[in-house]
# Entry
Amino acid sequence: MIDRQHYLEELKLRSFIRKAIKVVNERKKRGNQQQLTEETKLRSIIQKMLIQEREAVADTPPHQSTGINVLEDLLKKIIPVLETDYKVLTTRDENDPGEGPTVQRQSFRSHIINGVQNLLAPARAVSGEAGIETELAERVFKALEEEDISIDVEDDTDDAAFIDIGGYSAEKEAEPEDEFTISGEDITGRNVALQSFNKIEQNILDSYELLSGQEDRQLFYDYLLTNLKLYFDKFEDELKSAVDEPTTPEYEQEKETQGGLEGEEDLEL
# Structure
């Protein structure tokens, strides 16, 4: 038979337990609600910050030179391509001193910069010295017309006698690699640079041809080469910091100790 006093105490205990559970659940609920409220506030603040940042970027006045503005858009397209391909070249050969850019990366850099110069050379000639030559030629022909002098241009005898049978070339056409190659530079670096250059050359040409003013074109060209060199320096610094892992004397000592123990185990076997 259950004691009455014990029974009453049991009922009180159960009541307290139910109340305690209720309080805990309510606290959890308030805590979850508070957490959700804080997350909502934080999300709202971040969204406002992002909107303000985008507005600040949008409100940034463009450069006074159209050439620099066009170059900025171009760099956003080509620098990620160059960075990815440049950082692939990590092999060092036995003659490599182990400091600074690898021979492959040096070759990559040289070929890209030289390729850009060669790519824009014809367009720069047309907009520069070629304009002077055209003006001079027009003056010469005008003088000849005033003097009533006619010039007949005839084919050379050997050229006129040549019979073109088609599909034959006396000289082998130059391969793209041959035209792109800088003598003495690493071939792997050249190959990766050519692959990278093929991805970006049309972007460079399109951007340059947007500009007609001589000053804009000159600024575009000069700052393009300057920025390419600066970005290659930046890529190299990033690679150096990624490769050079900091160490401690304790780590080196422990490494030597473990190496010695492994050697002893090998001897016992």
